[in-house]
Hints:
The complex is a heterodimer.
Chain A: E1 3-4, H1 8-33, E2 36-39, E3 42-46, H2 50-57, H3 61-91, H4 95-110, H5 113-123, H6 130-137, H7 149-177, H8 181-189, H9 194-205, H10 207-223, H11 226-231, H12 243-252, H13 257-281
Antiparallel strand pairs in A: 2-3
Chain B: H1 14-18, H2 21-42, H3 46-49, H4 64-71, H5 74-105, E1 106-107, H6 111-124, H7 128-142, H8 150-172, H9 176-184, H10 189-200, H11 202-218, H12 221-226, H13 235-246, H14 250-281
Amino acid sequence: MRTAKASSYAYIAPAFALLGLVLFAPVLYGGWFSLQNIRYGAPTGYAGFRNFERLLDDPDLADILLRTFVHTGASVVITIAISLALAVWINRLSPRFGYVVQIVVIVPWIISTVVAALLFRWVFLNDIGLAAWLARSIGINNFQPLTSPAGAMALLVAVSVWKRIGYAVIILLAGLKGIPDDYAEAACIDGASGWQIFRRITLPLLKTPLLLVAIVLTLSNINTVETPLVTTGGGPGDATRVLAISVYERAFVNFDLGGATALALLMFAGNILLVVAYVRLSKWKA
Amino acid sequence: MAAPSAPFRPKLGAAASLALVLPVAALVLVNLLPLVWGVLTSIKPESAIFAIPPQFFGFEPTAAHYERVFASGFGQSFSISIAYSIFAVMLALTLAFPAAYAFDRFDFPFRQGLFLLVVASIPLSLGAAALLIPNYVYFVHLGLVNTPIVLPLIYAAHQLPMVIWVMKGTMEGIPRELDEAAIVDGASRFGILRHVMLPLARPAFGAAGTLAFVGAWNEFVAGSVMIDAPWLRPIQPLIYSFIGFFGREWGPLSAAATLAIVPILLIFALLGRLVVSGLTKGSVKG
Protein backbone atom coordinates (compact mmCIF):
# COMPACT_ATOMS: atom_id res chain seq x y z
CA MET A 1 0.00 0.00 0.00
CA ARG A 2 1.17 3.48 -0.78
CA THR A 3 0.91 6.13 1.93
CA ALA A 4 -1.64 8.82 1.02
CA LYS A 5 0.25 12.03 1.40
CA ALA A 6 -0.66 15.48 0.17
CA SER A 7 2.82 16.76 0.98
CA SER A 8 4.12 14.50 -1.83
CA TYR A 9 4.04 17.53 -4.08
CA ALA A 10 6.92 19.00 -2.09
CA TYR A 11 9.00 15.96 -3.13
CA ILE A 12 8.26 16.27 -6.83
CA ALA A 13 7.91 20.05 -7.16
CA PRO A 14 11.65 20.84 -7.59
CA ALA A 15 11.98 18.26 -10.38
CA PHE A 16 8.90 19.56 -12.18
CA ALA A 17 10.04 23.16 -11.75
CA LEU A 18 13.19 22.34 -13.74
CA LEU A 19 11.30 20.32 -16.36
CA GLY A 20 8.83 23.19 -16.66
CA LEU A 21 11.56 25.76 -17.13
CA VAL A 22 13.52 23.85 -19.78
CA LEU A 23 11.06 21.48 -21.48
CA PHE A 24 7.47 22.69 -21.10
CA ALA A 25 7.48 26.51 -20.80
CA PRO A 26 9.67 27.03 -23.91
CA VAL A 27 7.15 25.08 -26.01
CA LEU A 28 4.30 27.34 -24.85
CA TYR A 29 6.38 30.48 -25.26
CA GLY A 30 7.54 29.23 -28.67
CA GLY A 31 3.91 28.73 -29.67
CA TRP A 32 3.17 32.36 -28.86
CA PHE A 33 6.45 33.52 -30.45
CA SER A 34 5.70 31.71 -33.72
CA LEU A 35 2.51 33.77 -34.12
CA GLN A 36 4.36 37.07 -33.78
CA ASN A 37 6.04 39.34 -36.27
CA ILE A 38 9.74 38.97 -35.53
CA ARG A 39 12.07 41.83 -36.31
CA TYR A 40 15.76 41.58 -35.37
CA GLY A 41 14.97 38.65 -33.11
CA ALA A 42 12.29 40.50 -31.11
CA PRO A 43 8.49 40.12 -31.35
CA THR A 44 6.75 43.24 -32.69
CA GLY A 45 3.08 42.25 -32.80
CA TYR A 46 0.61 39.55 -33.81
CA ALA A 47 1.23 38.07 -37.23
CA GLY A 48 -1.27 35.21 -37.39
CA PHE A 49 0.11 32.19 -39.22
CA ARG A 50 2.40 34.19 -41.49
CA ASN A 51 5.55 32.52 -40.11
CA PHE A 52 4.07 29.12 -40.94
CA GLU A 53 2.89 30.24 -44.37
CA ARG A 54 6.36 31.49 -45.16
CA LEU A 55 7.72 27.97 -44.64
CA LEU A 56 5.74 26.85 -47.67
CA ASP A 57 7.46 29.51 -49.79
CA ASP A 58 10.73 27.66 -49.32
CA PRO A 59 11.15 25.88 -52.67
CA ASP A 60 13.53 23.36 -51.03
CA LEU A 61 11.04 22.17 -48.40
CA ALA A 62 9.96 19.05 -50.30
CA ASP A 63 13.60 18.12 -51.00
CA ILE A 64 14.55 18.67 -47.36
CA LEU A 65 11.72 16.40 -46.17
CA LEU A 66 12.69 13.74 -48.72
CA ARG A 67 16.34 13.81 -47.60
CA THR A 68 15.26 13.62 -43.96
CA PHE A 69 13.11 10.62 -44.81
CA VAL A 70 15.96 8.90 -46.68
CA HIS A 71 18.52 9.57 -43.94
CA THR A 72 16.26 8.57 -41.05
CA GLY A 73 14.61 5.62 -42.82
CA ALA A 74 17.86 4.09 -44.03
CA SER A 75 19.62 4.68 -40.69
CA VAL A 76 16.82 3.13 -38.62
CA VAL A 77 16.36 0.07 -40.85
CA ILE A 78 20.08 -0.67 -41.16
CA THR A 79 20.75 -0.05 -37.45
CA ILE A 80 17.97 -2.43 -36.44
CA ALA A 81 18.98 -5.14 -38.93
CA ILE A 82 22.62 -5.14 -37.78
CA SER A 83 21.91 -4.78 -34.08
CA LEU A 84 19.31 -7.56 -34.15
CA ALA A 85 21.85 -9.92 -35.69
CA LEU A 86 24.49 -8.80 -33.19
CA ALA A 87 22.15 -9.15 -30.21
CA VAL A 88 21.08 -12.68 -31.20
CA TRP A 89 24.74 -13.60 -31.68
CA ILE A 90 25.92 -12.04 -28.39
CA ASN A 91 23.07 -13.77 -26.54
CA ARG A 92 24.53 -17.14 -27.51
CA LEU A 93 28.06 -16.33 -26.37
CA SER A 94 29.36 -17.21 -22.95
CA PRO A 95 28.50 -14.44 -20.44
CA ARG A 96 32.11 -13.28 -20.01
CA PHE A 97 32.93 -13.16 -23.72
CA GLY A 98 29.53 -11.67 -24.47
CA TYR A 99 30.23 -8.85 -22.02
CA VAL A 100 33.52 -8.01 -23.72
CA VAL A 101 31.81 -7.93 -27.13
CA GLN A 102 29.09 -5.71 -25.65
CA ILE A 103 31.69 -3.21 -24.46
CA VAL A 104 33.23 -3.05 -27.95
CA VAL A 105 29.75 -2.54 -29.40
CA ILE A 106 28.91 0.29 -26.98
CA VAL A 107 32.07 2.37 -27.47
CA PRO A 108 30.80 4.36 -30.50
CA TRP A 109 27.58 5.10 -28.63
CA ILE A 110 29.28 6.70 -25.62
CA ILE A 111 31.62 9.00 -27.54
CA SER A 112 30.15 12.27 -28.76
CA THR A 113 28.56 12.62 -32.18
CA VAL A 114 30.84 15.55 -32.96
CA VAL A 115 33.93 13.42 -32.36
CA ALA A 116 32.47 10.39 -34.17
CA ALA A 117 31.53 12.47 -37.22
CA LEU A 118 34.91 14.20 -37.21
CA LEU A 119 36.75 10.88 -37.15
CA PHE A 120 34.62 9.55 -40.03
CA ARG A 121 35.35 12.71 -41.98
CA TRP A 122 39.05 12.12 -41.46
CA VAL A 123 38.93 8.43 -42.40
CA PHE A 124 36.86 9.15 -45.51
CA LEU A 125 38.63 12.38 -46.48
CA ASN A 126 38.61 12.61 -50.29
CA ASP A 127 41.57 10.83 -51.85
CA ILE A 128 43.93 11.05 -48.87
CA GLY A 129 41.86 9.37 -46.13
CA LEU A 130 42.48 5.90 -44.76
CA ALA A 131 39.34 4.56 -46.49
CA ALA A 132 40.46 5.72 -49.94
CA TRP A 133 43.78 3.93 -49.42
CA LEU A 134 42.04 0.74 -48.21
CA ALA A 135 39.74 0.91 -51.25
CA ARG A 136 42.70 1.36 -53.59
CA SER A 137 44.49 -1.60 -52.05
CA ILE A 138 41.57 -3.84 -52.99
CA GLY A 139 41.37 -2.34 -56.47
CA ILE A 140 38.71 0.37 -56.10
CA ASN A 141 40.10 3.61 -57.40
CA ASN A 142 38.54 7.01 -56.88
CA PHE A 143 36.65 6.10 -53.67
CA GLN A 144 35.59 9.58 -52.47
CA PRO A 145 32.14 9.36 -50.88
CA LEU A 146 32.16 12.96 -49.62
CA THR A 147 32.38 14.41 -53.12
CA SER A 148 29.19 12.90 -54.58
CA PRO A 149 25.62 13.53 -53.36
CA ALA A 150 24.79 9.83 -53.00
CA GLY A 151 28.15 9.07 -51.40
CA ALA A 152 27.75 11.86 -48.84
CA MET A 153 24.26 10.63 -47.93
CA ALA A 154 25.61 7.07 -47.61
CA LEU A 155 28.38 8.29 -45.33
CA LEU A 156 25.87 10.26 -43.23
CA VAL A 157 23.82 7.08 -42.83
CA ALA A 158 26.99 5.14 -42.00
CA VAL A 159 27.92 7.54 -39.18
CA SER A 160 24.36 7.47 -37.84
CA VAL A 161 24.31 3.67 -37.86
CA TRP A 162 27.81 3.31 -36.40
CA LYS A 163 26.97 5.73 -33.60
CA ARG A 164 23.69 4.10 -32.47
CA ILE A 165 24.13 0.35 -32.94
CA GLY A 166 25.44 0.03 -29.38
CA TYR A 167 22.27 1.45 -27.88
CA ALA A 168 20.03 -0.80 -30.00
CA VAL A 169 22.06 -3.92 -29.17
CA ILE A 170 21.81 -3.32 -25.41
CA ILE A 171 18.02 -2.86 -25.50
CA LEU A 172 17.43 -5.83 -27.82
CA LEU A 173 19.78 -7.99 -25.78
CA ALA A 174 17.76 -7.19 -22.65
CA GLY A 175 14.65 -8.22 -24.60
CA LEU A 176 16.27 -11.49 -25.68
CA LYS A 177 17.32 -12.30 -22.13
CA GLY A 178 13.68 -11.97 -21.11
CA ILE A 179 12.61 -14.80 -23.42
CA PRO A 180 12.65 -18.13 -21.53
CA ASP A 181 15.01 -20.72 -23.01
CA ASP A 182 12.29 -23.38 -22.73
CA TYR A 183 10.50 -22.04 -25.81
CA ALA A 184 13.43 -22.50 -28.16
CA GLU A 185 14.29 -25.78 -26.45
CA ALA A 186 10.79 -27.17 -26.95
CA ALA A 187 10.73 -26.05 -30.57
CA CYS A 188 14.14 -27.64 -31.12
CA ILE A 189 12.91 -30.96 -29.75
CA ASP A 190 9.95 -30.70 -32.13
CA GLY A 191 12.46 -30.44 -34.96
CA ALA A 192 12.36 -26.71 -35.71
CA SER A 193 15.39 -25.25 -37.48
CA GLY A 194 17.39 -22.33 -36.08
CA TRP A 195 15.82 -19.97 -38.61
CA GLN A 196 12.31 -21.22 -37.80
CA ILE A 197 12.93 -20.66 -34.09
CA PHE A 198 14.12 -17.13 -34.79
CA ARG A 199 11.29 -16.33 -37.19
CA ARG A 200 8.40 -17.93 -35.26
CA ILE A 201 9.44 -17.54 -31.62
CA THR A 202 12.18 -14.99 -31.05
CA LEU A 203 11.00 -12.28 -33.43
CA PRO A 204 7.35 -12.16 -32.28
CA LEU A 205 8.43 -12.08 -28.62
CA LEU A 206 10.85 -9.28 -29.42
CA LYS A 207 8.21 -7.12 -31.04
CA THR A 208 7.88 -4.54 -28.25
CA PRO A 209 11.60 -3.84 -27.73
CA LEU A 210 12.05 -3.70 -31.52
CA LEU A 211 9.31 -1.09 -31.86
CA LEU A 212 10.66 0.93 -28.93
CA VAL A 213 14.15 0.90 -30.42
CA ALA A 214 12.70 1.93 -33.80
CA ILE A 215 10.90 4.90 -32.22
CA VAL A 216 13.91 6.10 -30.26
CA LEU A 217 16.19 5.71 -33.30
CA THR A 218 13.72 7.62 -35.48
CA LEU A 219 13.51 10.42 -32.92
CA SER A 220 17.24 10.75 -32.52
CA ASN A 221 17.99 10.55 -36.26
CA ILE A 222 15.38 13.15 -37.23
CA ASN A 223 16.55 15.48 -34.49
CA THR A 224 20.32 15.23 -34.75
CA VAL A 225 21.89 18.49 -35.89
CA GLU A 226 25.53 17.63 -35.34
CA THR A 227 25.68 14.38 -37.33
CA PRO A 228 25.01 16.06 -40.71
CA LEU A 229 26.59 19.34 -39.62
CA VAL A 230 29.98 17.79 -38.84
CA THR A 231 30.01 14.83 -41.27
CA THR A 232 29.04 16.68 -44.44
CA GLY A 233 28.00 20.21 -43.45
CA GLY A 234 24.88 19.61 -45.54
CA GLY A 235 26.91 19.20 -48.72
CA PRO A 236 28.02 18.64 -51.35
CA GLY A 237 25.62 21.34 -52.54
CA ASP A 238 22.45 20.64 -50.58
CA ALA A 239 22.68 16.85 -50.88
CA THR A 240 22.58 16.18 -47.12
CA ARG A 241 20.66 19.24 -45.90
CA VAL A 242 18.11 17.52 -43.69
CA LEU A 243 15.34 19.04 -41.57
CA ALA A 244 17.37 19.44 -38.36
CA ILE A 245 20.12 21.38 -40.17
CA SER A 246 17.62 23.54 -41.95
CA VAL A 247 15.93 24.57 -38.67
CA TYR A 248 19.33 25.37 -37.22
CA GLU A 249 20.42 27.35 -40.30
CA ARG A 250 17.14 29.23 -40.60
CA ALA A 251 17.60 30.48 -37.05
CA PHE A 252 21.33 31.10 -36.75
CA VAL A 253 22.57 31.56 -40.32
CA ASN A 254 19.60 33.34 -41.94
CA PHE A 255 18.39 34.86 -38.62
CA ASP A 256 14.76 34.05 -39.43
CA LEU A 257 13.81 33.26 -35.83
CA GLY A 258 10.04 33.42 -36.48
CA GLY A 259 10.21 30.91 -39.32
CA ALA A 260 12.67 28.71 -37.44
CA THR A 261 10.39 28.61 -34.40
CA ALA A 262 7.40 27.72 -36.58
CA LEU A 263 9.35 24.92 -38.29
CA ALA A 264 10.69 23.69 -34.95
CA LEU A 265 7.15 23.53 -33.56
CA LEU A 266 5.99 21.45 -36.53
CA MET A 267 8.93 19.14 -35.86
CA PHE A 268 7.96 19.08 -32.21
CA ALA A 269 4.43 18.00 -33.15
CA GLY A 270 5.97 15.10 -35.10
CA ASN A 271 8.12 14.22 -32.09
CA ILE A 272 5.00 14.18 -29.89
CA LEU A 273 3.38 11.56 -32.14
CA LEU A 274 6.46 9.34 -31.72
CA VAL A 275 6.49 9.99 -27.96
CA VAL A 276 2.82 8.98 -27.68
CA ALA A 277 3.59 5.74 -29.54
CA TYR A 278 6.55 5.18 -27.23
CA VAL A 279 4.52 5.70 -24.07
CA ARG A 280 1.76 3.39 -25.25
CA LEU A 281 4.24 0.61 -26.01
CA SER A 282 6.47 0.87 -22.97
CA LYS A 283 5.37 -1.06 -19.94
CA TRP A 284 5.48 1.92 -17.60
CA LYS A 285 3.56 1.82 -14.37
CA ALA A 286 3.34 4.56 -11.81
CA MET B 1 18.86 -33.39 -22.42
CA ALA B 2 20.01 -30.35 -20.55
CA ALA B 3 18.81 -29.68 -17.03
CA PRO B 4 15.83 -27.31 -17.04
CA SER B 5 17.75 -24.49 -15.43
CA ALA B 6 20.77 -24.61 -17.73
CA PRO B 7 20.82 -21.95 -20.46
CA PHE B 8 19.96 -23.36 -23.83
CA ARG B 9 22.65 -22.93 -26.45
CA PRO B 10 22.58 -24.97 -29.65
CA LYS B 11 25.92 -26.77 -29.96
CA LEU B 12 28.30 -25.16 -32.38
CA GLY B 13 30.52 -27.24 -34.66
CA ALA B 14 34.30 -26.77 -34.80
CA ALA B 15 34.02 -24.78 -38.04
CA ALA B 16 31.34 -22.60 -36.50
CA SER B 17 33.40 -21.76 -33.43
CA LEU B 18 36.36 -21.03 -35.67
CA ALA B 19 34.10 -18.70 -37.64
CA LEU B 20 33.45 -16.91 -34.35
CA VAL B 21 36.81 -15.22 -34.58
CA LEU B 22 35.90 -13.57 -37.86
CA PRO B 23 32.86 -11.56 -36.77
CA VAL B 24 34.65 -10.47 -33.60
CA ALA B 25 37.63 -9.28 -35.61
CA ALA B 26 35.36 -7.44 -38.04
CA LEU B 27 33.42 -5.87 -35.18
CA VAL B 28 36.53 -4.69 -33.38
CA LEU B 29 37.93 -3.32 -36.64
CA VAL B 30 34.81 -1.40 -37.66
CA ASN B 31 34.03 -0.08 -34.19
CA LEU B 32 37.49 0.84 -33.00
CA LEU B 33 39.49 1.58 -36.15
CA PRO B 34 38.29 5.19 -36.55
CA LEU B 35 39.17 5.83 -32.90
CA VAL B 36 42.59 4.19 -33.09
CA TRP B 37 43.30 6.02 -36.33
CA GLY B 38 42.35 9.34 -34.71
CA VAL B 39 44.60 8.73 -31.71
CA LEU B 40 47.50 7.73 -33.98
CA THR B 41 47.02 10.84 -36.13
CA SER B 42 47.13 13.02 -33.03
CA ILE B 43 50.68 11.92 -32.14
CA LYS B 44 52.13 11.83 -35.64
CA PRO B 45 54.49 14.47 -36.97
CA GLU B 46 53.08 16.54 -39.84
CA SER B 47 55.03 14.56 -42.45
CA ALA B 48 53.58 11.21 -41.33
CA ILE B 49 49.94 12.31 -41.23
CA PHE B 50 49.37 12.34 -44.97
CA ALA B 51 51.92 9.60 -45.76
CA ILE B 52 50.94 6.99 -48.34
CA PRO B 53 50.73 4.14 -47.54
CA PRO B 54 49.26 5.14 -44.13
CA GLN B 55 51.64 4.61 -41.21
CA PHE B 56 50.35 2.71 -38.20
CA PHE B 57 53.74 2.67 -36.47
CA GLY B 58 57.35 3.54 -37.10
CA PHE B 59 56.97 7.30 -36.80
CA GLU B 60 58.46 9.59 -34.17
CA PRO B 61 55.59 10.40 -31.71
CA THR B 62 55.08 14.09 -31.01
CA ALA B 63 53.06 16.12 -28.52
CA ALA B 64 53.12 19.20 -30.77
CA HIS B 65 49.46 18.92 -31.81
CA TYR B 66 48.35 18.72 -28.20
CA GLU B 67 50.37 21.82 -27.37
CA ARG B 68 48.70 23.73 -30.20
CA VAL B 69 45.26 22.59 -29.09
CA PHE B 70 45.88 23.83 -25.56
CA ALA B 71 47.31 27.08 -26.90
CA SER B 72 43.97 27.59 -28.70
CA GLY B 73 41.77 27.66 -25.61
CA PHE B 74 41.12 23.94 -25.24
CA GLY B 75 41.96 23.83 -21.52
CA GLN B 76 39.30 26.39 -20.63
CA SER B 77 36.55 24.57 -22.55
CA PHE B 78 37.65 21.21 -21.16
CA SER B 79 37.49 22.48 -17.55
CA ILE B 80 34.20 24.28 -17.96
CA SER B 81 32.63 21.22 -19.60
CA ILE B 82 33.76 19.14 -16.63
CA ALA B 83 32.14 21.72 -14.34
CA TYR B 84 28.92 21.87 -16.40
CA SER B 85 28.63 18.06 -16.49
CA ILE B 86 29.31 17.54 -12.78
CA PHE B 87 26.89 20.30 -11.81
CA ALA B 88 24.22 18.89 -14.16
CA VAL B 89 24.67 15.37 -12.72
CA MET B 90 24.46 16.61 -9.12
CA LEU B 91 21.37 18.69 -9.87
CA ALA B 92 19.63 15.87 -11.72
CA LEU B 93 20.39 13.31 -8.98
CA THR B 94 19.35 15.69 -6.20
CA LEU B 95 16.02 16.59 -7.80
CA ALA B 96 15.27 13.06 -9.01
CA PHE B 97 15.85 11.29 -5.68
CA PRO B 98 12.91 12.73 -3.65
CA ALA B 99 10.70 12.74 -6.76
CA ALA B 100 11.36 9.04 -7.45
CA TYR B 101 10.71 8.28 -3.77
CA ALA B 102 7.36 10.09 -3.77
CA PHE B 103 6.27 8.39 -7.02
CA ASP B 104 7.16 4.98 -5.60
CA ARG B 105 5.97 5.28 -2.00
CA PHE B 106 3.23 7.90 -1.75
CA ASP B 107 -0.25 8.18 -3.17
CA PHE B 108 -1.48 11.59 -4.23
CA PRO B 109 -3.89 13.10 -6.77
CA PHE B 110 -2.59 13.09 -10.38
CA ARG B 111 0.24 10.69 -9.48
CA GLN B 112 -0.37 8.58 -12.61
CA GLY B 113 -0.66 11.60 -14.89
CA LEU B 114 2.45 13.28 -13.53
CA PHE B 115 4.49 10.10 -13.82
CA LEU B 116 3.23 9.67 -17.37
CA LEU B 117 4.62 13.14 -18.05
CA VAL B 118 8.01 12.01 -16.73
CA VAL B 119 8.01 8.87 -18.89
CA ALA B 120 7.00 10.89 -21.96
CA SER B 121 9.77 13.38 -21.28
CA ILE B 122 12.45 10.68 -21.64
CA PRO B 123 12.10 10.41 -25.43
CA LEU B 124 10.96 14.03 -25.62
CA SER B 125 14.35 15.33 -24.51
CA LEU B 126 15.86 13.52 -27.51
CA GLY B 127 14.13 16.05 -29.75
CA ALA B 128 16.94 18.52 -29.38
CA ALA B 129 16.53 20.21 -32.76
CA ALA B 130 12.81 20.78 -32.30
CA LEU B 131 13.11 21.99 -28.70
CA LEU B 132 16.21 24.05 -29.32
CA ILE B 133 14.73 27.09 -31.06
CA PRO B 134 11.74 27.58 -28.69
CA ASN B 135 14.18 27.00 -25.84
CA TYR B 136 16.53 29.62 -27.28
CA VAL B 137 13.90 32.35 -27.78
CA TYR B 138 12.49 31.67 -24.30
CA PHE B 139 15.90 31.85 -22.63
CA VAL B 140 16.71 35.05 -24.53
CA HIS B 141 13.44 36.40 -23.11
CA LEU B 142 14.52 35.35 -19.58
CA GLY B 143 18.04 36.74 -20.04
CA LEU B 144 19.62 33.34 -19.35
CA VAL B 145 21.56 33.04 -22.62
CA ASN B 146 25.33 33.31 -22.30
CA THR B 147 25.37 32.75 -18.53
CA PRO B 148 27.29 30.05 -16.65
CA ILE B 149 24.11 28.39 -15.35
CA VAL B 150 22.19 27.98 -18.60
CA LEU B 151 23.86 24.78 -19.83
CA PRO B 152 23.88 22.92 -16.48
CA LEU B 153 20.15 23.71 -16.16
CA ILE B 154 19.40 22.42 -19.67
CA TYR B 155 21.57 19.32 -19.30
CA ALA B 156 20.08 18.47 -15.90
CA ALA B 157 16.55 18.89 -17.27
CA HIS B 158 17.26 16.68 -20.30
CA GLN B 159 18.62 13.90 -18.08
CA LEU B 160 16.16 14.29 -15.20
CA PRO B 161 13.29 12.13 -16.56
CA MET B 162 15.68 9.24 -17.26
CA VAL B 163 17.23 9.57 -13.79
CA ILE B 164 13.82 9.58 -12.07
CA TRP B 165 12.84 6.48 -14.05
CA VAL B 166 16.03 4.55 -13.22
CA MET B 167 15.83 5.51 -9.54
CA LYS B 168 12.16 4.60 -9.22
CA GLY B 169 12.90 1.24 -10.84
CA THR B 170 15.53 0.57 -8.18
CA MET B 171 13.32 1.77 -5.30
CA GLU B 172 10.56 -0.63 -6.36
CA GLY B 173 12.97 -3.39 -5.32
CA ILE B 174 13.60 -1.94 -1.87
CA PRO B 175 11.05 -3.46 0.57
CA ARG B 176 8.56 -1.04 2.13
CA GLU B 177 8.96 -2.85 5.45
CA LEU B 178 12.26 -0.97 5.80
CA ASP B 179 10.42 2.37 5.66
CA GLU B 180 7.85 1.16 8.17
CA ALA B 181 10.48 -0.17 10.54
CA ALA B 182 12.33 3.15 10.37
CA ILE B 183 9.10 5.05 11.10
CA VAL B 184 8.42 2.81 14.13
CA ASP B 185 11.95 3.64 15.28
CA GLY B 186 11.04 7.30 15.10
CA ALA B 187 12.76 8.27 11.84
CA SER B 188 11.45 11.20 9.86
CA ARG B 189 10.79 10.95 6.12
CA PHE B 190 14.03 12.84 5.58
CA GLY B 191 15.78 10.33 7.84
CA ILE B 192 14.43 7.45 5.74
CA LEU B 193 15.64 9.07 2.55
CA ARG B 194 19.05 9.77 4.03
CA HIS B 195 19.71 6.55 5.98
CA VAL B 196 17.60 3.86 4.28
CA MET B 197 17.03 4.76 0.64
CA LEU B 198 20.27 6.55 -0.16
CA PRO B 199 22.62 3.65 0.69
CA LEU B 200 20.35 1.06 -0.97
CA ALA B 201 19.80 3.11 -4.13
CA ARG B 202 23.50 3.64 -4.75
CA PRO B 203 23.69 1.50 -7.91
CA ALA B 204 20.92 3.65 -9.40
CA PHE B 205 22.89 6.77 -8.57
CA GLY B 206 25.95 5.29 -10.28
CA ALA B 207 24.12 4.13 -13.41
CA ALA B 208 21.94 7.20 -13.87
CA GLY B 209 24.76 9.55 -12.90
CA THR B 210 27.14 8.01 -15.44
CA LEU B 211 24.56 8.20 -18.24
CA ALA B 212 23.75 11.78 -17.30
CA PHE B 213 27.44 12.72 -17.30
CA VAL B 214 27.99 11.19 -20.72
CA GLY B 215 24.91 12.98 -22.06
CA ALA B 216 26.01 16.36 -20.69
CA TRP B 217 29.63 15.99 -21.80
CA ASN B 218 28.68 14.98 -25.34
CA GLU B 219 25.97 17.60 -25.87
CA PHE B 220 26.56 19.93 -28.81
CA VAL B 221 23.54 21.91 -30.02
CA ALA B 222 22.48 23.72 -26.85
CA GLY B 223 26.13 24.42 -26.08
CA SER B 224 26.70 26.08 -29.41
CA VAL B 225 23.46 28.07 -29.46
CA MET B 226 23.13 29.27 -25.87
CA ILE B 227 26.76 30.37 -25.45
CA ASP B 228 28.75 33.05 -27.27
CA ALA B 229 31.48 33.93 -24.81
CA PRO B 230 34.66 31.89 -25.45
CA TRP B 231 35.32 31.33 -21.73
CA LEU B 232 31.88 29.70 -21.32
CA ARG B 233 32.02 27.57 -24.47
CA PRO B 234 31.77 23.82 -23.79
CA ILE B 235 34.04 21.28 -25.43
CA GLN B 236 31.89 19.90 -28.28
CA PRO B 237 31.13 23.30 -29.89
CA LEU B 238 34.80 24.17 -29.46
CA ILE B 239 35.84 21.06 -31.41
CA TYR B 240 33.34 21.99 -34.11
CA SER B 241 34.79 25.50 -34.32
CA PHE B 242 38.27 23.91 -34.62
CA ILE B 243 37.17 22.42 -37.97
CA GLY B 244 37.02 25.94 -39.37
CA PHE B 245 39.99 27.13 -37.36
CA PHE B 246 42.50 24.40 -38.14
CA GLY B 247 41.08 23.63 -41.59
CA ARG B 248 43.04 20.76 -43.10
CA GLU B 249 45.37 20.36 -40.12
CA TRP B 250 44.24 16.96 -38.92
CA GLY B 251 46.93 16.73 -36.23
CA PRO B 252 45.35 19.29 -33.85
CA LEU B 253 41.83 18.21 -34.85
CA SER B 254 42.45 14.59 -33.92
CA ALA B 255 44.26 15.65 -30.74
CA ALA B 256 41.18 17.61 -29.66
CA ALA B 257 38.94 14.64 -30.53
CA THR B 258 41.18 12.27 -28.54
CA LEU B 259 41.14 14.52 -25.47
CA ALA B 260 37.35 14.79 -25.65
CA ILE B 261 37.02 11.00 -25.47
CA VAL B 262 39.33 10.55 -22.46
CA PRO B 263 36.88 11.45 -19.63
CA ILE B 264 34.17 9.31 -21.24
CA LEU B 265 36.40 6.25 -21.55
CA LEU B 266 37.67 6.80 -18.01
CA ILE B 267 34.22 6.95 -16.42
CA PHE B 268 33.11 4.08 -18.61
CA ALA B 269 36.04 1.91 -17.54
CA LEU B 270 35.09 2.57 -13.91
CA LEU B 271 31.32 2.24 -14.20
CA GLY B 272 30.74 0.33 -17.45
CA ARG B 273 28.77 -2.46 -15.82
CA LEU B 274 26.44 0.04 -14.19
CA VAL B 275 25.87 1.78 -17.52
CA VAL B 276 24.79 -1.44 -19.18
CA SER B 277 22.42 -2.26 -16.32
CA GLY B 278 21.12 1.31 -16.21
CA LEU B 279 20.41 1.24 -19.92
CA THR B 280 18.49 -1.99 -19.75
CA LYS B 281 16.54 -0.76 -16.72
CA GLY B 282 15.01 2.18 -18.43
CA SER B 283 17.11 4.74 -20.18
CA VAL B 284 16.12 5.28 -23.77
CA LYS B 285 18.68 7.75 -24.98
CA GLY B 286 19.51 7.00 -28.60
